[in-house]
Amino acid sequence: MYTTARCPYCLMAEQLLVRKGVTSICKMRVDLEPDKFQEMIAKTGRRTVPQIFIGGFHIGGFQELAALDREGRLDELLQ
Asked: How far apart are the C-alpha atoms of 69 and 47, rounded to whole Å?
C-alpha cells in the first residue's frame, strides 16, 4: 500500500484490512521517499493515497477497497 503519515483514508484502509485478518501490510511512504511517489504514479496513474495492491492486483484507494468489502468480494481477494 502506498501511503503517507497523515492520511485518514490510509488509516481506514489499514484498519479494514486488519479487521479482515491481514497481519502484514507492506507500506511504502510516498511522503518520505519521493521515488516511491513517482513509482506509484507510474503503476497506477494516480497521485492520491492510499493506492492499494492485493496479490499484485491494483485495487485503487480506500473507496474501492470498501466497495469490494460491501460487495463481498474482498474476502476472496485476500485468500
From this structure: 23
pLDDT in tens, 24-66: 999 999 999 999 999 999 999 999 999 999 999 999 999 999 9
Residue with cell 484502509: 13
Distance (Å, rounded) from C-alpha 2 to C-alpha 45? 13
CB 76 within 8 A of CB 69: no
Q: Give the predicted TM-score (pTM) of the model.
A: 0.94
CA dihedral of residues 61, 64, 65, 68 (deg, nearest 10):
-170
- CATH classification (class only), 2-78: alpha beta
